[in-house]
Amino acid sequence: MKQVLIEKDAYYDSVFLMLINRDVKKIEGVLDAVVSMGTEMNITLLRDTGLADKELDGVTPNDLIIAIEGTSEEVVAEAMKAAKDLMDKKSGGDEGEGYKPASLEGAIKTVPDANLVIISLPGEFATREVRKSLNNGLHVMLFSDNISVESEIELKNLAKEKGLLMMGPDCGTAIINGKPLCFANVVRPGDIGVVGASGTGLQEITCAIEKFGAGITQGIGTGGRDLKNVQIGGTMMLMGIEALKNDDTTKVIVVVSKPPADVVAEKVIDALSKTGKPSVIHFIGLEPREQKGNLYFAGNLEEAAGMAVALSKGETYKERTYTIARAEVDAIIEKETKGMAGIQKYIRGLYTGGTLADEALIMFDREIGNIYSNNQSKEDFIPSDPNKSIEHTIVDLGDDVYTVGRPHPMIDPSTREDRIKIEVEDEEMAVMLLDIVLGYGSHDDPAGAILDSMRVAKEKFAARGGYLSIITSITGTEGDFQSIAATKSKLESIGCIVMPSNFQASTLALEIMRKVEK
Amino acid sequence: MDVKNINELFKQDLSAINLGLESFADNLKNEGVKAIQVQWKPPAGGNMEIAGLLDKYDAIKIKVGTDEANKKAAEIINKGKPTLIDVSTAGESIPGMKKNMILHAGPPVTWDRMSGPTRGAVIGGLVYEGLASSYEEAEKVAASGDIIFEPCHHHSTVGPMAGIVTWSMPVWVFENKAYGNKSYCTLNEGLGKVLRYGAYGDEVMAKLKWMESDLAPIMKKTLDLHGEIDMKNILAQVLQMGDEGHNRNRAGTSLFIRELAPYMVMLDEPKEKISKVLKFMHENDHFFLNLSMPASKCIIDAAAGIEGSTIITTMCRNGTDFAIRISATGDDWYVAPATMVDGLYLPGFTEDDAAPDIGDSVITETVGIGGFAMAAAPAIVKFVGGTPKDAITFTTKMYEITETENNIFQIPVLDFRGTPTGIDVAKIVETGILPAINTGIAHKKPGIGMVGAGLVSPPEKCFLDAFKAFVAKYS
């Protein structure tokens, strides 16, 4: 079946027609097709191939020819229509995204004023990109993990030589010039500068600073090993402190870190004392020291924020456990324990934030002892099956053992949802302790995503004649896109207790456990 | 401890480059921060051996001063002053040319491995030269071993498609006035059945003879009357008139005619002869290609042989192989099988008719025009099935694999940004971005001619090999 269509005086660009020709030939059932202008050469060709003959009489180079041969009448009709549609189709300039460069160098050429590179590539590729960034005079936030200590030392030495930030590796949180990077909250500007070797620690402190009515200048991340490893030696922490010292807008400095190596801790303390600025230090898991000169030692993340805000406002910090009235706390404890069954006796902390998990773990380990956790320093208390709780268990679900092949639970709450479903089957659970981390990087609705599983958990315990106490705290600010108010009311709607901080939530859970034990 | 740069950062507006999770960039944009996402891919397509070599390269680069060497190469390219100085013949002018020698496009290739179009053109060339008395005999002569086959590139010459050059053929003679080196190229034969597409036969021979007897002498006399022509200036103009100097040469051909016509009419030649020459040029949009090519060749040749430089000094193909040379390793070829062109076909032809990629015309891309200047030639973007916006993307991408931007060749639509110049083989390996090459498509059988045009993606292997050789040389 052949069909020939001649359109008189319809000039089309030959390349345009070649394009249509190609597309028409692709239609199933089309055996041959020529879409072309009626030039002498094309006419000869059409006659030679037998695709058209007498139809071509009188055709001029200004006439369009569409000749199609197909397996059936329908196919030819369809192809004819397709050809005409293609000719009518306006190419239309689509207003898509701008050019996305394929390399760091390409990006630098595109944005010559760039000053910061954020890298979250697989670890084996990240090192080289960091090196190139630094050599181009750019500050770096290195979110990637799986970077060797040797590489970290090399990169931080290079950063030091160049006087540039190299936040990381495994640095999840920073706030530079008030802008949240990776996992961070929208915190109002102020005069407190923070340097943290702990992502969620930095988040918890900066959010508490805002809650207590102050704001921050910078939140510099260093990566978790910065103070832990003697060879790295707190390089980025010390550079951060120096920069905050030189920064006129920073009046108070806060430093937070997972347990540091002793020599490194001393270097950091020494550097802080030399800043002459009031400085608050919180080394997670270490007993706070006595205040000395401009140095103040905090016992928990919230306290670090509280002390800093007091120093910023020129007030005296009053040591406290709860920021809500004792009577209110007692009422909560009464309400949360009275329905529990006798068999319920264990705490289950299901955390998404590593440092928040540590804060709870260290408190419970000190006060009750024998706490199982993937973050335990005592090897006997690391559960052999990470997915199974043993007695008192507090887990950090952001740990590598839980994130193989799935995103971090702050991004994908299903990891924790699945874990809640497992825990519910254990009738001995008394208290479930959770963190809810808001801010950029986190899930759109971290509370909402696990709400149903928590409601079901509470119902199951009620059905068994018991009561499941769920204690939570929210790390976030009014400025965070998830809405702290909506998050709180969701949690409270199913009977969760929402405490003002992780420290207070953990302390409350501890008090409940003590009451349960009696 | 010097942390001035950090305190500087505190006073600046953040401007971030994001490699990895795109949401990190989106979040910053949401907070009003300028953030650009990199479409990052593992270097060398995730080839860990090459990725390891890149680490080695980072060290070598510093040791041998690659940055400086590449800057020098780029500067040589930018300072190049290609000038049309004469019309001569291959035998008279091309260094090392011999009567029994045939130059061809691309890297070295033996008769038995030659592609259809190249074989066809060799047959035609032998008959044209009187080295064979018939086309049948020409095949035997070609296979006899009496004929020396050498790449044009070994003789400062370039040839489009088959690129066949024989002793008697007229050639354009170029000189790079900044560096003194010369280059050569035959005159373009026009469209249809032509030698460069492997066509031979009496019609082809007659035209070649006319070129020798009429076209070239008239050109030479005209040029003598006019004086030398600064071809860099003309190339700069054509880029602003919708040409890219490789697949579109309409503006170039027109400008060239405009330049010469006032002098040509002054010649003491019959009007008919002059008219035929002007008409011949007018009817062949690609007349200028054989001028943009030697102009490119004499620009880039001056940048060859610079110690430590990873700049590509040759890209070419012969329908069998694609090959490149880089500055630091001089005359060494890195060769891989030629690829097929992704393009549009003239009515009556399909990809089944196409020969693999062929010709020295990719010398234009080597100096940063042709496909690299695609944004300047929106009229031909349909060849790659794209929109004018795609053309801009093509060119923009090429800045990622080049050392610098041309000082004279500019692209109006990119706010007169200089064309991407000085292709760095290390950047190709690193980004996985291959040079964008515009090209014509030859029929795979000798004697048929052009069947289409399009974009060709060169084989990655020759770039990887060149990079490996560079690292090996300095390890």
Descriptive tags:
heterodimer, A: 518 residues, alpha/beta, Alpha-Beta Plaits, Rossmann fold, 3 domains, five-stranded parallel beta sheet, B: 475 residues, alpha+beta, v583 fold, four-stranded antiparallel beta sheet, 16 helices, 39% helix
Describe this structure in words.
The complex is a heterodimer of chains A (about 525) and B (about 475). Chain A is an alpha/beta fold and about 525 residues long. Chain A has 3 domains: about 1-90, Alpha-Beta Plaits; about 105-315, Succinyl-CoA synthetase domains (Rossmann fold, 3-Layer(aba) Sandwich); about 325-515, 3-Layer(aba) Sandwich (Rossmann fold), CATH 3.40.50.261. Helix content of chain A is about 40%, strand content about 20%. Chain A contains 17 helices and 18 strands. In chain A, the strands form 5 sheets. Chain A has a 5-stranded parallel β-sheet, with helices on both faces. In chain A, strands 15-14-16-17-18 form a 5-stranded parallel β-sheet, with helices on both faces. In chain A, helix 7 packs across helix 10 (about 300-315) and helix 12 (about 355-365) runs parallel beside helix 17 (about 500-515). The radius of gyration of chain A is 33 Å and the shape is elongated. Chain A starts with a strand and ends with a helix. By secondary structure, chain B is an alpha+beta fold. Chain B has helices spanning about 5-10, 20-30, 50-65, 65-80, 90-95, 115-130, 135-145, 200-225, 230-240, 250-265, 270-280, 290-300, 365, 390-400, 425-430, 460-475, and strands at about 15-20, 35, 80-90, 100-105, 150, 170-175, 180-185, 230, 310-320, 320-325, 335, 340-345, 360, 400-410, 415-425, 435-440, 450-455. In chain B, helix 3 (about 50-65) packs across helix 16 (about 460-475), helix 6 packs across helix 7 (about 135-145) and helix 9 (about 230-240) packs across helix 10. The model of chain B has no long low-confidence stretch (mean pLDDT about 95). Chains A and B meet through helix 1, strand 2, helix 2, helix 4 and strand 4 of A and helix 1, strand 1, helix 2, strand 2 and helix 3 of B.
